[in-house]
Amino acid sequence: MAQQVASVWRDFDIENRVARKEIGKRRADLCFGCQNQKSGRIVADAELDWAAKHSFRFDTAEFAFSNLSSARQLRARQRKRNFVANLVIGRATNDLAFRSAAIIDFADRQAIRVRMARRSGDLRNDHVIDLCAARFDVLGFDAGAGQQFRDLFRIFWKIDNVKVGPSPQWLRGKIESVGIRSINNIVDISNFVMLELGQPTHAFDADRLRGGINVRLGREGEKFLALDGKTYSLTPDSCVVADQERAVGIGGVMGGEETGVTDSTKNILLEAAYFLPASIRRTARELNLPSDASYRFERGVDPEMVLRASQRATELIREIAGGTPGKEINVAGKLPANPPDVSLSCEKCNRVIGITLKPKTVDEILGGFGLRKMSAAKTAKWKIPSYRRDLQRDVDLIEEVVRAYGADKIPGTDRSRFTPASIADHAHDLESAWRERLAAVGLDEVRTSKLLPRERFAFSESAIELRNPLSEDHVALRPSILAGLLGVLDRNIRAGAERVAIFEIGRTFIPPSGKEERHVGILLWGNVASAPNWRSPKSRGLDLFDLKGALECVAPNLSFRQGKFPDLALPVDVFSSDRMIGFGGQLLAAKSTAPSAVFVAEVHADLLLTRNELATKFRDIEKFPAVTRDIAMIVPEETSHQKILRAIEEPREPLLEHVELFDLFSGGEIEAGRKSLAYRLTYRDRSRTLRSEEVNAAHAKIRERLRRDLGAELRE
Question: I need a labelling partner for 669 at 20 to 30 A (CA). Which of 150, 225, 377, 570 fits?
Fold first, then answer.
C-alpha cells in the first residue's frame, strides 16, 4: 500500500458558511505523515514539501485517511468531538485518528515543535487577509517611555461593522474543552488564536476609545478597572495601553472593562504584540494579576507570530462575525533582532555526548527543531529560529541533540574517577552528621518557609521585605530560623501535641545586606518522653541542660556564657574556640502560646565549617593508662561551672587530660546559698606510666588553687 499523508483542518462553521468541496482546497500547515500502511508519525517541515506532491484527503476537524472503509464509518467517527491531544513526538498518528482537531498551545510546549510544522494557522486560499497589502502607520510613545519599550512591538488593526454574538458550536466546544469559558464570538476568537498559535491578542471596543491609542508607563496613583471586574493601582513600571484620557489595558496582562467587547459593540480595534518576558513577569507580580496572556508572555512568545496572529484572528472575525478590516494598520515599536547564529562542530558534539553520531544524524535532529544550517564547513553555523532564543551556545545545541536522540541510548561508563573532596562536600557531610546526631537524641527535623509574615520577625529587629509579596504571610526573608520553629510549635500545640523537640538546618538572610548564612535552629518543649511508661513513670520536663546537650551534638567543644536577648529568659551566648557562634535560652512566656517553658537555640553553621574542623583527625590508641582523682567542693550558689573549670585548667597542668562534672547537690546538709559540686580529673602522660607521687602533686596544686582563688570548701 502506498504511503498516505493526512492533515488537520480547523473547521469553521461549515454547515452554514463553507462548502465541503471548498474545504478540500484548504489545509493547515500542521501536517502529519503516515509511514507504512498501519501507522504514521509526526513529520517535519522539510517533509511537508514531499507531502505536498502526494494526494491528500481532508475532512472537517478530523484526521482523514484514504483507507477509510465507508462513509458511514467516517460519519460515526466524526461524532467524537472535543478531543484535545497532548501530542508526543513520534506518536503514531493512528492513535489520534478520527478525533476532533487538536488545539495545540505552542506557548509552553517547545518540544512539540520537533519535526512539526510551525505555521499551523497559515490557510493558503483566496480568503486570507494579506497584511502586506495594508498600509502601516507608526504609533508614537510617551516621552521618556521609549527606552522602556525598546523591545516592544505592537499591531493595532481596526475592523468595522462586526456582529457580536454567541460563538458557533465548533469554536465554543474547542475553547471550553481546555477550560476557557465562552463569552462571545470576538473574545472566543482571541482565545482560540492564543491557544492555536501561542500568541495572545486583544480586542477593544473602538467606539469607547477616547482619541488615539498610545503605549506608555503607568502613573503614580493611577487606577485601572480590569476585565475581571477588579480595580488595580498602577505603578510607574507598568506597561500601559492608553487612549488620550485613561488606561485601557495593561500591556501583556489584561484589557480594561470600560473598553471591553460587549453585545452592543460594532467596531473593534484588534491588538497583537510582543513583550519582553521579564517586563510582563514583573508587572503581573506587582499587580498580583496572573492571566492566560501573561502566562505566555512570561515564558516568551515567537515575535514572528505577531503578524500571523493578527492575520489569523482577522480572518476568523470576518468569517464568523462579519466586519470589514481597515486598510490601515497601526504599528508601534519594532521586533527584536533575530537570535545570533551559533557554531557547532560534530567533533565537539560527539566529545561532549560521549558517543559517535553521524553528521547527518545531528543535522536531521537540529533541522527538526527548526534550525537551518548555514554552511557545510567542519564547524557549521546554524541559524536559530525566532522562537528558540534560549539557544545561544554550542552546548545548547548539543543539549537539543541529546534530548531528541534520547539520553537512554547513551551508554554508561565503567570507569571511575577520583574527585578530591571540596569544602562544599565536607559541609554537606558535616550537616548530614548533625542531622543523624540530633535525630538520635530524639529531635525531629522540620523544613519551614524562608518567607515570613511581618509580625514574626523573631530575634531580629528587622528583615528584608519583598517588594511584591505573593501574600501577607510571605512578606519578608527570614533573618532567623527560630521564627519558623515557633510556628511549628504553635500548630502542634493546637493539634494536641504534648511534646515538641525539633530542629532545622537552613539558610537565613541577614539585613540589611541580605547576606545568606546557614544556621542550625533547635526548639524543645514538653517532657523528655511524650507519656509516662514503665521505665519512666514520672517523666520530667525538658530543660536548659537538654538544650545544651542537643547543641553539643552539633559541636562537642562548646562553651556557654551569659548573654543578653530581650526575648529570652536565662539567655546564653554559645562559643566555639572563643568565637561566638550563636545563642540560646528559655523563651519568654509572652512570646509563645505554650503552657510551659520553651527552650530555643540557634547557631551559625558556617562558622563551624572551617577547614581545621572539617579535617578528619586521627590519634593513636593510648598505650599508657590514665589515673583519675575526684575533687568535691562546696562553693557559693552563684559560682558558675565555667569559673570553676577555668580555675582547674588554667594555668595549664601538663598531666591533666580531662575534667568532668559528675555531681551537683544543694539543700539537705548544705547550708542555704551554697552548693556542692564534684569533678573527676583524668591524668595521663602519653610517653610513660605515671607514678602516684606525680599525680598526687599535680592534684594538690589544683586543690590549693581552688581554695585560694574561689574560696572553695574542699570535702574529703
Answer: 570
